[in-house]
Specification:
The structure is a single chain. The protein has 14 helices and 13 strands. It has 352 residues and is α/β, with parallel strands linked by helices. The protein has one domain: TIM Barrel, CATH 3.20.20. A 7-stranded mixed β-sheet has the order 2-1-13-12-11-10-9. Strand 11, helix 12 and strand 12 form a beta-alpha-beta unit. Helix 3 crosses helix 5 and helix 8 runs parallel beside helix 10. The longest helix has 25 residues. It starts with 8 loop residues before the first helix and ends with a helix.
């Protein structure tokens, strides 16, 4: 199998397969850099597909891929998403673009007073699914054999209920109507299965495999389990309501990396890492003072819990972190030039 913009695609697939098995003799490193002696074209901005037509975006994506090198385990792809609530929009919600912002959208809550009366199901007839399919098919018609399309992040579980019903409403109902919330979550899980299956067909995962928004590649199905709402609830509530959702999602996927966002979510780390279907953790400190803190203790704890991790950084950072952790499932997304990267990869192979 070949990709025009990734001549060593099959070799990268083999490395990724070994990564997920915990058998890689070095960390996975993906580096995307401009080609020499050409004027690089930028990738389309996030949410460009919200209001632009497919062909214009495809033109830009192809120009971006033509002017960049995809080194190491980097695989060229376009991340198709209409916003963080893309999944909820496929249940029939209405997405709106924030005024004055080209990269943020929000979902208009549509659940009324009663969770049990709400229509919570995958609606393939809805506008946002039809637009998703339109983009996928347009991309595949022009880009199959050149680059891949990454599916939207399927933000389900409590984050979905917060989007379709409102955060304050959900927070109250977790206490006042827990059984109704559980029934609603059950319907979200069913929709998750149906949407994932539909995306697997449209994107032909059986042939090409899949990517998530971070560039993690899987020969099967991958996505990014997450729950930003977890910052607002206790360990007990998380275990009761969200953990079963994450277990279900990770069971539908072949491989996954959890998006752990913000200091308020850290107290759920052990519960998240108890799930065998989640193989790696991406830690995001959030905005403000958290970005300036040293989170090495947290990273060491993730390593102790047996999970891989996702990092950025230059060659020095990659080498330092690769030697610090024992996991064989470390992934680094960088922009290291080829000569420097070749030298680095040799050093990383020798560390094992």
């Amino acid at each position: 199998m070949q990709l025009e913009f990734k001549p060593d695609f099959e070799q990268a697939r083999q490395r990724w397969t070994a990564y997920w098995k915990g058998e890689s003799d070095r960390p996975v490193v993906a580096s995307v850099v401009p080609k020499e002696s050409v004027t690089p074209v930028e990738a389309p901005r996030y949410l460009a597909a919200f209001s632009c037509e497919p062909d214009a975006i495809i033109d830009q994506v192809l120009a971006w891929a033509e002017t960049h090198e995809f080194l190491g385990e980097a695989i060229p792809f376009y991340y198709l998403e209409f916003g963080a609530d893309h999944f909820s929009a496929l249940l029939g919600g209405e997405l709106r673009l924030h005024e004055g912002s080209g990269d943020t959208s929000w979902l208009v809550p549509f659940v009324g007073e009663d969770w049990d009366e709400a229509e919570i199901r995958f609606q393939p007839e809805c506008y946002w699914w039809r637009r998703t399919v339109e983009f996928i098919r347009a991309f595949r018609a022009r880009c199959d054999g050149k680059l891949l399309v990454a599916a939207p992040t399927l933000v389900a579980g409590l984050d979905c209920l917060a989007a379709i019903g409102g955060q304050e409403r959900l927070a109250m109902d977790l206490v006042m109507q827990p059984e109704a919330v559980q029934r609603a979550l059950s319907r979200v899980r069913k929709a998750y299965e149906e949407i994932l299956d539909a995306l697997a067909v449209e994107l032909d995962y059986e042939t090409w495999g899949s990517l998530n928004r971070h560039g993690f590649y899987s020969p099967g199905r991958t996505n990014v389990p997450q729950c930003d709402f977890s910052c607002m609830i206790s360990k007990e509530m998380f275990a009761e309501f969200q953990l079963p959702c994450l277990a279900h999602e990770s069971q539908q996927l072949d491989h996954s990396c959890y998006h752990l966002d913000g200091p308020g979510a850290i107290h759920h780390l052990e519960a998240i890492c108890s799930l065998p279907g989640i193989q790696a953790i991406q830690w995001v400190a959030g905005a403000g003072a958290g970005e300036q803190q040293d989170w090495m203790r947290l990273h060491r704890r993730i390593d102790e819990l047996g999970k891989g991790q996702y990092f950025g950084g230059n060659a020095e950072t990659v080498e330092r972190l690769a030697r610090r952790f024992r996991s064989k499932q470390l992934y680094f997304r960088t922009s290291i030039p080829k000569r420097e990267l070749d030298s680095l990869l040799l050093k990383l192979e020798s560390r094992r």
